[in-house]
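Entry 14. Structure prediction run on the chain below.
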Amino acid sequence: MKRLHVHIGVKNLEASIAYYTAMFGAEPVKVKEDYAKWAPEDLAVNFAISTTCGQGGVGHLGVEVEEDDELARLSMRLGTVDAPIRHDGEVSCCYAKSKKAWSEDPEGVKWELFHTFGEADELAPVFLNKDGSEAEAAPFA
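Output returned:
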C-alpha cells in the first residue's frame, strides 16, 4: 500500500499530540521526546493543486469523510481538545458540493474537514442554503 507522508513542524508537541489524536481518532504509533507519528489505516489521500490559494506552498490540509455522521464525530473529537472549529455547512467549492468545517492545529495549520455529496461547476467557494440555492455567506454553528 502507498501512503502519503505529511510532516509538520510544531512548537508544542504535547498540545499537537492531543490535537492530532483527536483529529485521527487514534493514538500515535510512535512517540519520542521530540516526535510523534500516526499511521491511520482508514486514511487515504485526496491530493489537489490549484492556482487560487495565493502564494505557492501548502494552502491547507484536509480530512474527507464518507458521511455527515463522521464529520460530526470528527468535530466533536476536536472539541474535546478545545480546538477552534468553524462550521461552514453546505458549500460548493473545488468543483464539488460538500458539507464543511474548518479547524486549526496548535501551530496554526489549517485543516478542512468535509463530506462531499455531489459535483459543482465552480472552483471558488459558494455557500448553499438547505434547499441547494446560493446563500450570501457561510452559515456558522
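Residues 12 and 106 are 7 Å apart (CA to CA).
Filed with the rest of this week's runs.
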